[in-house]
Amino acid sequence: MTAPTAPVTARLAGKVAIVTGGADGIGRAICLRLAEAGAAVVVLDRDSAKAADVAAIIAERGGRAIVAVADVTSESQVAKAVSDSVERFGRIDVLVNNAAIPGAQKPTHEATEAEFDELFDVDVKGVFFCTKHVIPHMKAGGGGSVIHISSINGLVGNKDVPLYHAAKGAVRLMAKTDAVVYAEDKIRFNSIHPGSIRTALSEKLAAVHPDGPDAYFQWLADMHPVGHQGEPDDIAYGAVYLASDESKFVTGTELVIDGGYTAQ
Ligand SMILES: NC(=O)c1ccc[n+]([C@@H]2O[C@H](COP(=O)([O-])OP(=O)(O)OC[C@H]3O[C@@H](n4cnc5c(N)ncnc54)[C@H](O)[C@@H]3O)[C@@H](O)[C@H]2O)c1
């Protein structure tokens, strides 16, 4: 006799999620997996065409999604995207702060103020704006889950992109601090720390690597004990867990998904 199975339930049924940088790469995978788990998804990105593609795939699969075209460096665009999301779906339960750029691949003494500002505007100030504008709606709705996509580069240093390391370290601590501040509002904050994932972002870094893309990708593979880069879905499944009530006791923590990179 086979054991009785529990009824199938959608892990994120009834939840509404905003995913920044949802049009491509890891953010795209997160949108698709959150929708598959039952969430209504707002695909927030500055790339309207790619964001529309993601929303269309979700709709074809029977899910619910809208596009919010916004640049996370603009507080007014972020505020509008958040209010449009609430107008459409009535609430916000999950925010995934995923949009980021890798910035200049230069040592600190060669990087310019403009390069510093461009990177921090997207990777840190963008996280601040989106979080700031979502919190009042989460408070009104009785809680929520905010997930900052940091990086292994927010945990350890390396000889590659110093400004990006600094930015990813900043969002790691923003999650911890807000986890403490907003615990009484039942809003959880966590960071995810991906190892290298094959997306447009890593291809951009490869394209400008002094030893060429092949050497760069081999170096990356060698840095990960598993011997290869990860896939966007490796990160998306972690986001589904942190978005769901399965992680209701998890706040202020770091979910490291890195093929063993930081275990060494
Ligand atoms: N790919 C990796 O190896 C890797 C490793 C660790 C962490 N991460 C992090 O994962 C996240 C996603 O990275 P990815 O590799 O999927 O990147 P990606 O370049 O493939 O996609 C980034 C998405 O963000 C959007 N975006 C960029 N700037 C924006 C802005 N100002 N406003 C709105 N949208 C904007 C882009 O249009 C794009 O759709 C980032 O936070 C990145 O730092 C990536």
Give a structural overview.
The chain is of the alpha/beta class and 264 residues long. The protein has one domain: NAD(P)-binding Rossmann-like Domain (Rossmann fold), CATH 3.40.50.720. It is 45% helix and 14% strand. The chain contains eight helices and seven strands. A seven-stranded parallel beta sheet has the order 3-2-1-4-5-6-7, with helices on both faces. The longest helix has 29 residues. It is globular and about 50 Å long. The model has no long low-confidence stretch (mean pLDDT 96). The structure holds nicotinamide-adenine-dinucleotide (NAD).
Q: What is the top-level CATH class? A: Alpha Beta
Spatial sequence of strands, sheet with the most strands: 3-2-1-4-5-6-7
Looking at the overall shape, the CATH architecture is 3-Layer(aba) Sandwich
Q: Give the ordered list of helices and strands.
A: EHEHEHEHEHEHHHE
Calculate the mean pLDDT score and round it. 96
Tell the overall outline.
Answer: globular
Our measurement of the CA-to-CA distance between the termini, rounded to an integer number of angstroms, reads: 46 Å
- Total helices: the number is 8
Structural class: alpha/beta
DSSP helix fraction: 40-55%
Bound molecules: nicotinamide-adenine-dinucleotide
Strand elements, count: 7
Q: Mind telling me the CATH superfamily name? A: NAD(P)-binding Rossmann-like Domain
Rg over alpha carbons: 18 Å
CATH topology: Rossmann fold
Count of domain modules: 1
Q: Ranges with pLDDT <50 over ≥5 residues?
A: none
Largest pleated sheet: 7 strands, parallel
Our estimate of the beta-strand percent is 5-15%
